[in-house]
Amino acid sequence: MLGVAADGVRGRYAKGVERKREILAVAYERLRETGASGASLRAIGESIGVSHGMLTHYFGSREGLLVEVIREHDRVNDERMPDSVSLVQRMRLSAEFNVQFPGMVSLFTEMLAKSVEAGDGPARSFFTARFARARVELAAELGGQLAALPEERRADAAMLVDLIMAASDGLQVRWLLEPSVDVAGTLGLLERLGRTG
């Protein structure tokens, strides 16, 4: 009897996970083109053919849904990324990918701004972890190159990491305002300067 109940729970849970994945896929396809600026959770639900209540059930809030859409975009981007590229090259390739989807750049910017508001919502948790992970990965990658530098130059590593990350995000915001900005090209220049500096 317990085994049957457990199987039933697992079956419902698996269906719930699959339903959430389906909703997220539809939301991602829609929002990466349009963004979600000013749209309520109810309006987002209507635009993707899902009730407000179902979105609340699976994602908790508008912020929770939008963070999951960004996470999905990161996953899609990671899957298409070559294995043998440096992290700075990954940022450049990501920028090339991102500018195909103005809605995602807008959504990322909106949630990044939300992450610095008071409180401890999904955006703050997501971006805090995201930046910490990227900083560690980039510092480790640059560490090999910087180890060959004199001691006084190695102290610049942390600042270089922060500069690269700030450039990547800042250039994409500038691109939203001025589409002629060459985000990928500018990141490529920064990468070359980092190698020769």
From TrEMBL:
- Which positions make up the DNA-binding region? 40-59
Question: Domain HTH tetR-type spans what residues?
Answer: 17-77
Q: Which keywords appear in this protein's UniProt record, sorted alphabetically?
A: DNA-binding
Query: Is tRNA processing set as a keyword in this record?
Result: no
Report the superkingdom from the record: Bacteria
Read off the InterPro entries from this record: Homeodomain-like_sf, HTH-type_TetR-like_transc_reg, HTH_TetR, Tet_transcr_reg_TetR-rel_C_sf
Is the keyword Metal-binding assigned to this protein? no
Q: Can you name one GO molecular function term for this protein?
A: DNA-binding transcription factor activity
The record's PANTHER family line, in alphabetical order, gives: HTH-TYPE TRANSCRIPTIONAL REGULATOR PKSA, HTH-TYPE TRANSCRIPTIONAL REGULATOR RUTR
Please report the name of this protein according to its UniProt entry. TetR/AcrR family transcriptional regulator
